[in-house]
Amino acid sequence: MAKTKSDRDSSDSFQCDCGPKTTCKVESILTIDDRGQMVLPKDVRDRANIKSGDKLALISWEKEGSICCFALMKVENLSGMISDVLSPLMNNTGA
């Protein structure tokens, strides 16, 4: 069950509930400057509970030797995602 905004605001231990039945949408269009920097809009930072100093992981997908897609994820949520992805793979190998 997804947590509400009030749940996220009251706890720093918010865990993402993303999964196969969640939806993706374009939040905004970002411009990259000459130094490779971009700005996440304040409303997106607020809803994602991203604060100054937080670390984000850049996750990429590669196709035919080039990165075709990427996503940002808070580092503290990364271990859960890795576990969710690797667990089915480990179960299928008989390990």
Automatic annotation (TrEMBL):
<protein>
    <submittedName>
        <fullName>AbrB family transcriptional regulator</fullName>
    </submittedName>
</protein>
<dbReference type="InterPro" id="IPR007159">
    <property type="entry name" value="SpoVT-AbrB_dom"/>
</dbReference>
<dbReference type="GO" id="GO:0003677">
    <property type="term" value="F:DNA binding"/>
</dbReference>
<dbReference type="Pfam" id="PF04014">
    <property type="entry name" value="MazE_antitoxin"/>
</dbReference>
<dbReference type="InterPro" id="IPR037914">
    <property type="entry name" value="SpoVT-AbrB_sf"/>
</dbReference>
<feature type="domain" description="SpoVT-AbrB">
    <location>
        <begin position="30"/>
        <end position="77"/>
    </location>
</feature>
